[in-house]
Amino acid sequence: MKADWRIPADQEDPLLRSSRREMRVALIFWSVCAAWTLGYAKLNAYKLPPEGEEIALVLGVPAWAFWGVILPWALATLFTIWFALFSMTDHELIEPEPEPEKKNP
After folding, report:
1. 30-76: pLDDT as tens digits
2. Is there a contact between 41 and 68 (Cβ–Cβ < 8 Å)?
3. Which own/partner contact pairs does 47-53 have at CB distance under 8 Å and 24+ positions apart?
4. In whole angstroms, how far apart are CA 65 and each of 5, 52, 97?
5. Per residue in 4-32, pLDDT tens?
6. In terms of Cα–Cα distance, which of 48, 50, 66 is closest to 58?
7. Whole-model pTM above 0.90?
8. Rounded-to-integer distance, Cα 79 and Cα 85, Å
9. Which of 47, 50, 73, 74 is deepest in the core (most CB within 10 A)?
């Protein structure tokens, strides 16, 4: 017999549901940025310019590092700020009811 650890949707705590949604959004966005960085760096970081040409620079940084590392993670930072300020929800934590005191006989 297999144990089923899933909580039915109608019994799930709204705080848990919200936390899972926020976690999924964060992980998906992080994964996209990481894939972009790794893919772009793999394709562009090791290309040397032809003999006698300078390495292309953007704001004083090699172009591949700017477009492949700085830009996606700057966007990730801006997205994180926006997500934290405007998309994440705040929930009241429910205090457990205190147990009645037991009298000793």
Report:
1. 899 999 999 998 998 887 778 878 888 889 998 889 999 999 999 99
2. yes
3. none
4. 45, 21, 55
5. 677 666 667 777 788 888 889 889 998 99
6. 66
7. no
8. 10
9. 73
Counting every residue written for the chain, the total comes to: 105
Tell me, what amino acid is at 88? M
Amino acid, single-letter form, for residue 14: P
Give the DSSP H or E segment for 57: strand 57-58
Q: What is the per-residue burial (b if ≥16 Cβ within 10 Å, else e) of 77-102?
A: eebeeeeeeeeeeeeeeeeeeeeeee
List beta partners, residue 58: 61
Dist. CA 88–CA 79, nearest whole Å: 12
